[in-house]
Amino acid sequence: MKRRDMLxxxxxxxxxxxxxxxxxxxxxxxxxxxxxxxxxxxTIEPWRAQFNKDILAEAAKHPDVxxxxxxxxxxxxxxxxxxxxxxxxxxxxLLISPKESAGLTGVVQEAIEAKIPVFVLDRNVDTxxxxxxxxxxxxxxxxxxxxxxxxxxxxxxxxxGNVVEIWxxxxxxxxxxxxxxxxxxxxxxxGIKYLLDKQSGDWKQDQAYNIMATALRNxxxxxxxxxxNDPMAYGAYLAAKDAGREKEMKFIGIDGLPNEGVQxxxxxxLTATFVYATPGAEGLRQAIKYLNGEKVEKEVxxxxxxxxxxxxxxxxxxxxxxx
Length: 323
Ligand code: FRU
Prior knowledge:
Layout: H1 3-21, H2 27-31, E1 34-40, H3 46-59, E2 65-71, H4 76-88, E3 93-97, H5 101-113, E4 118-121, E5 132-136, H6 138-152, E6 160-167, H7 173-186, E7 191-194, E8 199-200, H8 205-218, E9 224-227, H9 230-242, E10 250-255, H10 258-266, E11 272-275, H11 280-291, E12 299-302, E13 306-308, H12 312-318
Parallel strand pairs: 1-2, 1-3, 3-4, 4-5, 5-12, 6-7, 6-8, 6-9, 9-10, 10-11
Antiparallel strand pairs: 11-13
Helix pairs in contact: 3-11, 4-5, 6-7, 8-9, 10-12
The chain binds beta-D-fructofuranose.
């Protein structure tokens, strides 16, 4: 990890501790109108770190809100315990970005039964009884990636090539939607061959590296890699680079964080990424709106954007990064 990233993480951790210290029983919290609990699945992945930064920045604009953030440490059991804890603290609203659907549905239902309004962010659960879902449209993003893959492989009706797809977490809706959307386009092309059968890197760069290293050993030619997120697409790129084969193929990822995926595209390491905006700020705004008595939609879908070499530098500039 770069020193700058470590400092960022240290600051974030400090901020998390500071916010969590404001339990509803503290004097400061009692002066606040609303206590909102946010159960985050993990804090180490770059997209999660950005997500927490976004929600903390939004919280700073609302002096009447006491935000408690918990870290599920990427484990279902830990996240279930976190939510049970927030329910016991009788938070006014619960925001949750779950590790996976099945394992977190029960505790979300418990919160709903305890009359706590629940806002599900990014990954879904297996119930629609929550107050609201806020996140990106993963099917749409998958479709955009599939359409672009077909273009890169020779165009509609003519596309040809060997494709490696590295799945995100199998128990999550985003991974399935990103797969389904992609295949709506690529399955129409008889010239496209898939080299792997449902291999999951669980959203992690190192796991994707290993999957790709094996795929490279077993296949003489690979034309395109589709990673369900940028860390995995980049992990695959690194494996190809270590095998001296990175020029042989294209790499597509998803997330499009300026300081991660967009920079990788700008450097020519990834061919494309698709923005998957974090629901941190919007999720908190919606919860506050609801608590203040306003009506909210059942679903708020955040927009996406395709990033290629054509617009990467411009997107970096828009985000204050010197390309
Ligand atoms: C981070 C992450 C992102 C991905 C999202 C899907 O934990 O893996 O990279 O877009 O979760 O839920």
